Amino acid sequence: MWLDDLFPGEWKFSMAVVPIFLLCIAPTEASYEFPAYRIYQYDYQSADVTDREAFGSSVAQVSFEGRAPDAKQITRKNVVMNLLDITSKQSFNSLLEKNPGSVLIILPDFMRTEDFRNVTKETLDQIAEAERALLDFPVTQIPIYFSYETAELKQIQEELKDLSDMSGASAVLYAGSAVLHQFSVTQKQPEVLKAQLDAIESRLDGISGSPTILVTTKMDAFASSFALARGANSAASGLGVTLEIARSLSMLFIDDSTRPQYNILFAIMPADSINYVSTRNWLDAKDKNENSATLKNIHLAICLDALGSSSDGKLYAHVSKRPADGTLGNKFLKSLEAAASVNSLELELIHKKINIQDESRKWQHERFAFKKVQIFS
Fold first, then answer.
1. In the record, which residues are listed under signal peptide (predicted)?
2. Residue of 84, 125, 217, 306 with fewest CB within 10 Å of its CB?
3. Both 106 and 224 in a single domain?
4. Long-range residue pairs from 371-375, CB within 8 A, at least 24 positions apart, any chain
5. What stretches of the chain show up as alpha helix (H) in DSSP?
6. Which residues have CB under 8 Å from 377's CB, separation 6+?
7. What is the spatial distance between Cα 363 and Cα 100, in angstroms, rounded to a whole number?
8. Do 41 and 97 belong together in one domain?
9. What is the DSSP letter of 100?
């Protein structure tokens, strides 16, 4: 995500990422060129799925006259709006149903500078809600772009707002005598990139015949625009902690006298921000491989995510099934609770059953739970 912050062998993935420059031309003024970032475009097809699913915007070309979002007529126009104007998924879908030619969403300047000191929690919550509205909608042929707020764009927005506030006759006179803004993209339609990526695996071998503990995380951040993704407290934190665990534990595996009675398997999943499909395919591949005893040997799996900071002094462990007393999972949680208290953190266990009717997975551990692996995030 913006404020929190691609696929395994059997998963075909396509995406489009390209730097774009929008050009705004007014009849009586020089043109103004500014960088803009396309909303996501991706589709994927699993090996066991015949229908390909596509999301985001599939069109990049823009050549439309600008309008404010509340203008009476926005069909075949470029709507210039603020991110905070998007209050819900329904409100954004309602805008798209009016068939604008394209949409330019202006991001607050503090998102560019990443200076949130004077930003209220209410505003941050509004931004999070706006991005949720922009995520996971079916593919559209309406080009959608983001750009950071500038003095020039603010002036353009004010002029477009003035135009939308005018009566019909006044608007006609305004169009004939004042500045109208034409938006266009200077680059060609980008080619869709096709990638086929695998999970990264490594292991530390314990004493011969030892069971396995799995440590897993995702490597990619995700946002409404890939170019604007921030993963410091999401993908980057889990990856950083995983690498540090591997570095620290490797010292114990060097000498036979300190070698643990467990194998430690590390798995870093690409593109798991998209419904943890990478984890699902990784598990299916292990399950189908008759020569692999990986899943049967996993006595405990730990999924790492959002460990970059703690605003409330708590460390959260999410489970779909509470670990029974005496199990390895229960012992680990007790040890984790003791270690957290030493570092002035409180461990809180959050138990939530999996809704099997819902195809969307909220946490990585939910994928493992279907394979009956003892797991938590």
1. 1-30
2. 125
3. no
4. 371/283, 371/287, 371/295, 373/214, 373/295, 373/298, 373/301, 374/298, 374/299, 374/300, 374/301, 374/323, 374/327, 374/328, 374/329, 375/300, 375/301, 375/302, 375/303, 375/319, 375/320
5. 89-96, 109-113, 121-134, 151-165, 168-177, 235-253, 277-288, 294-297, 328-342, 365-369
6. 303, 304, 305, 317, 318, 319, 363, 364, 365
7. 36
8. yes
9. B
pLDDT for 338-366, tens place per residue? Answer: 999 998 999 999 998 888 777 778 788 88
Of the candidates 180, 190, 203, 172, the residue with the CA atom closest to the CA atom of residue 292: 203
What is the tens place of the pLDDT at every residue in 300-317? 999 998 887 777 889 999
Any bridge partners for residue 55, and if so which?
42, 138
Quick one: 203 and 172 in the same domain?
no
| Alpha carbon distance 190, 272 (integer Å) | 24
The pLDDT assigned to 373 comes to 86
Beta bridge partners of residue 43, listed in sequence order? 14, 54
Q: Which two tokens stand for residue 240?
A: 């950083």
Instruction: Return d(Cα 55, Cα 39) in angstroms, integer.
Output: 10
The residue out of 185, 213, 233 marking a domain boundary is 185
| Burial class of residue 273, CB neighbours in 10 A (0-12, 13-18, 19+) | buried
Q: Which residue has the higher pLDDT, 291 or 12?
A: 291
Task: Tell me, yes or no, whether 372 and 225 share the same domain.
Answer: yes
Cα–chain center distance at 324:
33
Task: Estimate the share of the chain in helix, then strand, then coil, as percent rounded to the nearest 5.
Answer: 30, 25, 45
Range of the domain at 310: 196-376
Res. 93: pLDDT tops 50: yes
